[in-house]
Amino acid sequence: MASHDYETHDHDVIVIGAGGAGLRAAIEAAASGVSVGLVCKSLLGKAHTVMAEGGIAAALGNVWKEDNWQVHFRDTMRGGKMLNNWRMAQLHAQEAPERVLELERWGALFDRTKDGRILQRDFGGHRYARLAHVGDRTGLEMIRTLQYHGIHQGIDVYMECTITRLLKDGDRVSGAVGYWRESGKVVVFRAKAVVLATGGIGKAWKITSNSWEYTGDGHSLALWAGADLIDMEFVQFHPTGMVWPPSVRGILVTEGVRGDGGTLKNSEGKRFMFNYIPDFFKGETADNEAEADRWYEDKTARRTPDLLPRDEVARAINAEVKAGRGSPHGGVFLDICTRRPADYIRKRLPSMYHQFKELAGVDITKEPMEVGPTCHYVMGGVRVDADTTQSTVPGLFAAGEVAGGMHGSNRLGGNSLSDLLVFGRRAGLHAALYAKNFAGALTVDAGQVEQAARQMLAPFERTGGENPYAIQSDLQETMQALVGIIRNEAELKEALKRLEQLKERAHKVRADGHRQYNPGWHTALDLESLLTVAECSAVAALERKESRGGHTRDDHPYTDDTWGKVNVVLRLRDGRVQVSREPLLEMPADLKALFQERK
Amino acid sequence: MPTFTMQVFRGEGRTGGFKEYKVEADTGMVVLDLIHRIQATQAQDLAVRWNCKAGKCGSCSAEINGKPRLMCMTRMDLFSEAEPITVAPIRAFPWIRDLVTDVSYNYEKARQLPPLRVKSPEADGTYRMMQEDIDRIQEFHKCIECFLCQDVCHVIRDHEENKKIFAGPRFFIKAAGLDMHPLDTRTDRAQFVREQAGVGLCNITKCCTEVCPEHIHITDNAIIPLKERVADEFFDPVVWLLRKFRGRRQDRA
User: Fold this and answer.
1) What is the pLDDT of residues A281-335, one digit of tens each?
2) Rounded to an integer, what distance in angstroms lies between the CA atom of residue A200 and that of residue A55?
3) Which chain B residues touch A102 with a CB distance below 8 Å?
4) B126 and A247: CB-CB below 8 Å?
5) Where are the beta strands (DSSP E) in A123-185?
6) Dihedral of alpha carbons B174, B178, B182, B187, sign
7) How many CB atoms lie within 10 A of CB B158?
8) What number is the ipTM of this complex?
9) CA A163 – CA B241 distance, rounded (Å)
10) Which of B:160-199 have CB within 8 Å of A?
């Protein structure tokens, strides 16, 4: 086969993905004085971070001076049901405040307290009001701030460029290969270090808050390059997505609605969350409406169960609907209109107001919203060293949603944006250090490039193959039905069987037309990573025979201490996904003590 | 289910035209849903940009029945089944394929804006800002960079030659936001918007404000104040005279 023409770009560090983590990594690497390329599938500023609503969790202590990193650390670990990489959770809690203040120095304008400091809002699982925010469009403020700061740092940005394979020189990473979405031409990046900041895998499910980009590219690139993945069974279904009309099903409704006083009700008008307080959170959760309502102003009261961690709330909604107490379109009611004045709602939740008004014809200052669970976030990801974010492959780093460990079995709301900043910065810093310390030459193996290029172009050469959209849609149905909020062995095995059939079909997928800006072809290529992460998630879910956080098995309904000591680890051996159980890092005694202080 | 007649602009490079598709619409669907349905069932290579499908990322800008709008926020129940609906790319930018255009003009203009230069923090290392002092700028920060305001602005829509000297409404609100930013210490912003961004070319027809999906008061709250800043700095006779004696303040990025 003739050699494919391709262009090559050289950098010390390339960052794949330009959301919060990728931008922050690129900024830090550039500040370290190395040459940085930032590659993203969409236009700059359109990444998934832009959709984040509620806020950035950071123990600034502006609203409650009692707050500090230890409390934040404790909340994060408990939210993750203690499965988190404790060191990541510690670094995250310690460094998040400085990362928020840094955003302010770069121009971000957060909502203010009366004395002019950064205002913080209540969110699920956080003991104190902790989320720095801008109404309900915090992600937009964050990405714009990073974007406009980043464009002056000498970073080369490669927009609308999809990476399909990492390149390796021996054990090390040596770059990446992909294609320009606009021209369809092959492009090679030669780099000493690669930072993955590609986000999540939510497009493998049908009802999802995630955009087309969330096809698990980084997870798959890492796995194919020999890196370990951990915790892939833990998928967060956000409790509140829109459910009506059908075309908007899954679009996110911020937890800020509940943080600002909204409450969940069933068809009988009852605040049902009081019936779903698990023993693990009994000590800190209000068991009556009066105390729950008092908590917003008085932190000596216990927290409203409406703000239990997301896994708990999603399961509760699921159970209410199953019990026949759902709303007309199969969700439950989220009511803020009877609880807060219309002006307050419009000021605090402008984009929710706008979204419901324009897409559902619902005025949330007058009527309750109908909401239900939507696939939102994957806790699992690339296994990294907490301090450096380096994966098990030399030169390969990962930050943000694509990295695993930080959130354990369930992520608290608001901890994602702070995760992006804390570990994005660390990834950029350590990737740059790695590149600087790397002596010797890296070669890009033309054979690897050639093979990747052949795989990219294969869908054009097939005749009679299938439409990629049909395969994508069947995959989403399969994951929704069989690897959803509640799982069991029979269904997971059935899912894996169907995924094998889908892989077969994907091998024969056909692209129509030509290479220039061809979404059908792009969808065909994305199927490979989408199927990879779907399989990883199902394999890990089958392995973990207990229920914990974002993984609920109705055939193993209880949390089991022996499973609380291990991660499910996946790696590729001879082309097959291998699964093993490996012990968690041991938490040092001084941090352990934080969990004994208070019940 | 109602069936709509969608006339979608298709082609690439230099040749293109409207192609007709019959598409069924479910309850609550928006134009972008129908475009996706065309991709899935009739034309998988139909090129379109989109991301969030919730009016937050500003990727799916198009001209629907000639009007610049976000496809994800345009509900099908606005239209009648009897009339065909046209969907065309935003036309102020070079066309790539189908509904996709080359918006790099905007990214170039973004880079030209002098960045924020912040004052020193207070003793505790942080800043105090009052909510009422940032309300106006927070309005500008709602911008999702859909570039519909740029698309509709007649200064560049029909005058390619103006693109060199004119930044457009999106970057006037950005410049105004920086100028009004409580932490910014630059003094060269009026000079920038006059000399590099071409604010003088805007004759406040408010087309940009009308199409803004975020309802930002682009003209009233950003462009007019910027024009006033320029007038104060460059056309106020007292300031002019002072400058004659003292020389112009110089500011460097």
Assistant:
1) 999 999 999 999 999 999 999 999 999 999 999 999 999 999 999 999 999 999 9
2) 19
3) none
4) no
5) 131-132, 156-158, 161-169, 172-180
6) negative
7) 10
8) 0.95
9) 59
10) 174, 178, 181, 183
